[in-house]
Amino acid sequence: MEKDIEILLVEDNPYDAELTIRALKQSKILNHIVHLSDGEEAIDYLFSQGKFKGNVNRNKPRVILLDLKLPKVSGLEVLKKIKEDNELRNIPVVMLTSSKEEKDIAESYKLGVNSYIVKPVAFDKFADAVRDLGLYWLLLNQTRQ
Amino acid sequence: MPLVHPDDREATENAMQDLFKPPYTCQVEQRALTADGWRWFEWLDSSILDENGNVKEITGVGRDITKQKEAEAELRENEKRWTLALAGTGDGVWDWNLLTDDVFYSDGWLEMLGYSKNEITGGYKSWEKLVHPNDLPNVLKIIDNYIKGNTDAYTAEYRMKAKNGKYKWILDRGKIIERDNKGKPVRMIGTHSDITVSKEFSIELEERVAIRTKQLEVANKELEAFSYSVSHDLRAPLRAISGFSEILSEQCNDTLDQESKRILSIIKDNTKIMDNLITDLLEFSRVGKAHISKSDTDMKILADSVYDEITDATQKAKITFSSDKIPNAFVDSKQMKQVWTNLLSNAVKFSAVKENPEIIAGGYTEDNNNVYFVKDNGVGYNPKYNPKIFQVFQRLHKSDEFEGTGVGLAIVQRIILRHDGRVWAEGKPGEGACFWFSLPRKIP
C-alpha cells in the first residue's frame, strides 16, 4: 500500500486537469495522483510498455478518470483495452466528457464503463461531480480488496 | 364490254389478247355492273381452236369474288396502317418460329441497328449474338419466365450492338401468338423500340442523383463532426474561464474590491450564457437528425406533467394554469415533450411580469388535423414579427428583459415540421401571445 497510485487521471486539456485535481484536493481525497495527457501514454502506463517499459510491477490505480476525447488513442479505445485485460478490468473507470452525446454514452457503457460524468461548465458543479465519483469509487474499490 | 368498269377495261382487253395466242387461256378480274351495282368477277376464259389453229369459240367461267376482294382490300389497309404506325414510331418487328427457329426481322428492325437483311442470319442466335453480354443473362431469364408462363408479358430493356459497333438501348416487347395443341408456344411476335436517348438520360440522372446523395452524405457527416466538435471543444475553454474565475473569486474574496467582484461575476454569467447557447444549438441540430418513433400520446398528460416540472411552488401559486380537451396525438412523445416544454416555458417566462399570469394549454380536432395551442396573457409581441418568430437565434426581447437563446421556438418548429405539421403564432404587445401547432391525425 505504501506507494500505491490511487487515482490515474488521463486528460489532455491542462486546465481541465488542473480543475479536476483542485476539485479532488478540495475534497481531501487526493493521495497519489498520476496525470497523463494522451491515450497512448495511458496504455503504456497501464501495460508497462513504451516509456514505462522498465516497470516490473504493473500500475494498478484504484480509480481511472478518463477523458473521452484524447489525442492519439481515444478514451473509448483506452477503456476497451482496460476492460479486455484480466488484471485491469476490475479497476473502476469513470469517463469524463464534455457532451451528452448519446452515442458516446451508449458506447462507453457497452465497453463496460463504471460511471460517466458530463463535465459541467460551472466549476462548483464540476467539483461536486468529481468529488462524489472519485470518493465513491475509491471507497468501493477499497471495500472490494 | 359496256358492262365492264371503265378502270378495268384496259386490263381486260390486254388479258384477252392471250386468248388468240398460246396458251389460249386468260384469267381476268374485273368489276362489272349488275343489278346490285358494281361487283368483282373472276373470269377464266379459254379458246376453242379449229383444225387450222384459229380461234373458233371462246368459253368462260366467271364467279363473283366481291367478298374476297373486299377482304383483301381490308387486309391491305390494315397492313398499310401497321406499316405506317411502325414507320412513324421507328419501331421494328420480329417474328420467331420456335419450332423451326426461323426469325423474320422487319426493315425497321434492321434499320434501327444499321444491318442489312443478309447480315442477320441463323435464327434466334443471330439476335442473341448482338445483345450486350452483361444484359443477356437477365434478358434470357425474362424470356424463359414468359415462355414458361410465369409472367403475362414479355418486356425487356437491354443493349444491342449496332453495325457501327455502338450499343443501343432496346425496349423489346413480345407475345406468343400461336401454340400447338399441347399449349407449347410455336410462334412469338414482338417489337423493338430504340430507347437509347431516354435510357441514357435516365442513367445520367441516376448518376447525378447518386453523386448528389454522396455529397449530401458527406455534408451531413461533416455537420455531425462539426456539432460533435462544438459540443466537446467549445466547452473546454468555457470550463476554464468559469472554473478559474470561480477559483479567483473564492481565493481572493477578501482582497477583491466590489468592482472586481462585479466584473468576475459578469465573466461567470456570460460563460453560462455561452454554455446555454451551445447546449441549445446542439439540441437544435440533434432534433433535425433524431429518429422519430411515433406512438399514441396523451397530450394532456404530457402538457400537465411538463408544466408541473418547469414551475416551482411560487410560480404555481401565482399562475392560473388550465388544460383540457387536448386530443391525443400519434407522435414521438419524447420530442413532443420538448415542444410542450419550450412553449410552456415561454408562456411562464413572458407572463411572469403580469399581476395575474394565466396560461391555457388546449387543443381540438379539425378535419384531418389535431390543433394544439399554448396561450398566455403575458407581454405578447408585435405581430409584424410573425415571419421571424420561429427563426433560430431570433429574439424579440432584450437579454436584460428576458433570458433566452432564441432557439426554443426554432426547435418547436423543427419538431412539428418533421411530424408533417404546421406552426403559427398570434400576439399583441402587452396582451399576450398564443402559439399554435397542428399535427396530422393518425389514419387508422
Overall morphology of chain B: elongated
Number of helices of chain B: 12
Instruction: Name the poorly predicted regions of chain B.
Output: none
Provide mean pLDDT of chain A, rounded: 82
| Share of helix of chain B, binned | 40-55%
Helix-strand category of chain B: alpha+beta
From the alpha carbons, calculate the radius of gyration of chain B and give it in angstroms.
Answer: 45 Å
Which sequence of SSEs, written as H and E, runs from N to C of chain A?
A: EHEHEHEHEH
**Helix content percent band of chain A:** 40-55%
Q: What's the gyration radius of chain A in Å?
A: 14 Å
Overall 3D shape of chain A: globular
Oligomer: heterodimer
Number of distinct helices of chain A: 5
**How many angstroms separate the termini of chain A?**
12 Å
Give me the secondary-structure category of chain A.
alpha/beta
The main pleated sheet of chain B reads as:
5 strands, antiparallel
Strand content of chain A: 15-25%
Which regions of chain A contain 5 or more consecutive residues with pLDDT less than 50? none
Biggest interface in this structure?
A: A-B, 19 and 18 residues
Q: What topology does this entry show?
A:
The complex is a heterodimer of chains A (145) and B (444).
Chain A: E1 7-10, H1 14-26, E2 33-36, H2 39-46, E3 63-67, H3 75-84, E4 93-97, H4 102-110, E5 115-118, H5 123-144
Chain B: H1 6-16, E1 25-34, E2 37-49, E3 55-64, H2 66-89, E4 92-97, E5 102-105, H3 107-113, H4 124-128, H5 136-147, E6 154-161, E7 167-179, E8 185-194, H6 196-233, H7 235-251, H8 258-289, E9 295-297, H9 299-310, H10 313-318, E10 320-323, E11 329-331, H11 333-351, E12 358-366, E13 369-376, H12 408-418, E14 422-428, E15 432-440
Helix pairs in contact in B: 6-8, 7-8, 8-12, 9-11, 11-12
